[in-house]
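Supplementary Data S3. Sequence and structure tokens for construct A.
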Amino acid sequence: MIRFQGTGKTFRGRDGTAVEALRDISLEVAAGEFVAIVGASGCGKSTLLRLAAGLAATSTGEVTLDGARVTAPRAETAMVFQAATLLPWADVLRNVTFPLRLMGRVAPDTEAKARALLATAGLAGFETKLPRELSGGMQQRVAICRALLQDPRLLLMDEPFGALDALTREEMSLELLRLWEARRMAVLFVTHSIPEAVLLADRVVVMSPRPGRIVDVVEVGLPRPRSFDQEGSDEFQRCARRIREHIFGQRADRAA
């Protein structure tokens, strides 16, 4: 569905210095597949998502969606950031429907679908609340509902649970799995948490320090539906150990 082919990205600072963020990324993600991306800070994970979203242009290679080159944001793609980025003056329902209103895609059943989605996410009864009246986890659920209401074929998630406490993060991981199981869109999910990546993903892409390159793609053979009970399984530990060996090996190489 989405394909990175020889994709690279170089930024230029104010002083003209070139900073190579990504180099020669080649990756394909199938429709309905959940792919997590892990790597050290600054390795280009977020930049990769921005290229997939059409929010930045490639310096080398290309990104294609259904064979068409991605050069601008597309209706089939939605993105969730680490911060919920909700409109502080708008209630929950208006926040969820805002992107469709902005794109002129509001249909007669849009509000009903938004309410149903909020109910699925455990937010029934909060439609008229303002963001400041919600917990951090609830705000992020609203942000996920906002993305899902667009009915995307590709969902990009940039450390969406990074600002949450450990218990809320686990709750949100299970909530995301439940929503994804119901809709099965393709997901690219950036995280610093190796257990989170293994729990959620069909495959985990491990990236090198900058310039970010793919050093391994770990297939996760855990059965679905997933739960935290699987963390003690041999397959979970095998995947986590293989990813850690790459990450910690990279740090050792840099320190040498």
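Construct B, processed identically:
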Amino acid sequence: MSISTPASAQALHQRFADLFARIAEGAIARESERRLPIEEVRQLKESGFTALRVPVEHGGGGVSLADYFSLLIRLGEAESNLPQILRVNAGFTELLQERRDDADTRRWLKVIGSGQTFGAAASERTGSTSNSVVLEKDANGQLRLNGEKYYSTGTLYADWILARGHDHESDLNVIVHVNAPGVERIDDWDGFGQRLTGSGTTRFHNVPVQADQILDRYQLSQPRRNTIITSFYQTFHLATLAGIARAALRDAVAFTRPRSRTFGVPGQSVPRENPLVQRVVGRLSSLAWSTEQLTLAIAREQDALNEARRAGSATTEDYNLLDIRTFEAQQIVIGQVLEATTLLFEVGGASATSQALRLDRHWRNARTLASHNPVTQREAAIGNFHLNGEPHNERFGQGYV
């Protein structure tokens, strides 16, 4: 059982404050040079951050989702690429905890608890939702994995790959080590935002697979039911967006405080004393606070539903409502963060567009994150739920990563 208290949350923030500060110091240089944060991810692994949600008995921190997402927002403030790099690892941790308590579950929870992480190989760039990665036996009876995935978020930094494939009987989750023969990871993600997430191509060339690397079987076309994972993955994006809003406020204040001239005001005028500039910063602060509170409200609902599941009282209706509440929060958070990352430039005029500041990265990163799960589709799902009582039909092939 995970209990969130102000004291535990404060202790967590203090524990990681110095690491997050160091990460933030190098964010502009990494963005400018497109330098992958390999060292920063290593430090997060060694610090125990990647295992915070793993139960204590398996080597993790056992923290609540509310505390975890609160901390994730701060990491997103320091460097928004990093939460996304770790998103699949975090989601796999949640999937394992919802899964039956068997040897496979305990094995992989202990792997994550030891500081190793997982990346994704689930999505494809095709004209329709599909699963073209195939697991078949060769002439000697050895299972071999072949195919290609894109949007392989975090795989460049991971120790293991959670791959989605099929064997002509069903779809299945296959766990492959990144150094297995035949695994090829390519840094070809070309999005204008979240440029360092390693969300490019993963190829499998006759990769040998043992039977115990096949975790679960499922049908790609079937809706997911009675799981928080859809909500969890979306809340992960919301937490990163909330972190970006905090970073926009931080950078607006840092930019404004030392300045001695306000646009359009003759002579010397200290911008921080200008009511119009104060109003912009006040709006930025309000947007950052609001996005954080909405995100944490969803996290607390997830904690409550997890407790109900463990007590045997969770219902399908509870899970359906959690998805809808998450989508409702998404509608507001995305708009507020995009507003904040645009409004940021009103504190400094043309000088705020300097490449040396890279303030544009906040909008580019927010816009890229917001594009991962189309708001219009989710808005329609909300309306259909309230008008017709229809649950959101999230399928294994949609929105997984």
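The chain has twelve helices and eight strands. The first helix runs from residue 6 to 25.
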